[in-house]
Amino acid sequence: MIARINGTLIEKTPVSLVVEAIGVGYEVFVPLTTFYELPDVGENIVLHICTQVRADAITLFGFSSQREKDIFQLLITVTGIGPKLALNILSGTDPQELVRSVARGDLNRLVRIPGVGKKTAERIIFDLRDKKIAEISGTQTDEKTLSADVQEMKDDALSALMNLGYKNQAVQDVLERVLRDAGDEEMSLDILLKKTLKILAN
User: Fold this and answer.
1) pTM over the 0.85 mark
2) How, if at all, do strands 24-29 and 58-63 pair?
3) Domain map of the chain by residue range?
4) Does domain 4-63 have CATH number 2.40.50.140?
5) What confidence tens digit (pLDDT) does each residue in 53-110 have?
6) Using CA atoms, how far apart are residues 36 and 28, in angstroms rounded to an integer?
7) DSSP string of 92-142?
8) CA nearest to 137, candidates 164, 101, 171
9) Which CATH class is domain 66-137?
10) What is the maximum span of the chain, computed from C-alpha positions, in angstroms?
């Protein structure tokens, strides 16, 4: 069972990539969150791998962090969620945001993910809340320090900036810094995006 690949990135698309390790090229399917973290073609890459074995195929799913892999493996235990939909869910939301949404039972946030309807969102919350998803992912949600409105604004800003091509962790760090420095200052999504972009551009 392949659990980790360390090799040269040969090809990459938003859906899959090819990594060459010891002369063998492995096709690996990835979520967008991992795609945005990829280096340039020709550079070295390390991926955490979940291997799915079926009678007619062996499929590799790759993740930039162990946390993403853990959440993927939890998602595919939910009734009605296969690997393809699990990747789609991770592509539609940051892992930390997903953890918070499940922990809060935030049905509205989950149904905003493309491909996730109300019934699927309900199953995700029902099945994963009791599995201590926050502990397994290594993420203790900071929602206690943020109001629901501010948290939603931060999540929207994160999604918008990742769509512009910025990397997940870099955006997370700057967003948290901007919100922390704002203190009691009134903050809108537009202001948050402008301040974050200014820091990211430097």
Assistant:
1) no
2) parallel
3) 4-63, 66-137, 144-201
4) yes
5) 888 889 999 999 888 999 999 999 998 999 999 999 999 887 878 888 888 888 888 9
6) 15
7) HS-HHHHHHHHHHT-HHHHTTSTT--HHHHHHHHHHHHTTTHHHHHT----
8) 101
9) mainly alpha
10) 58
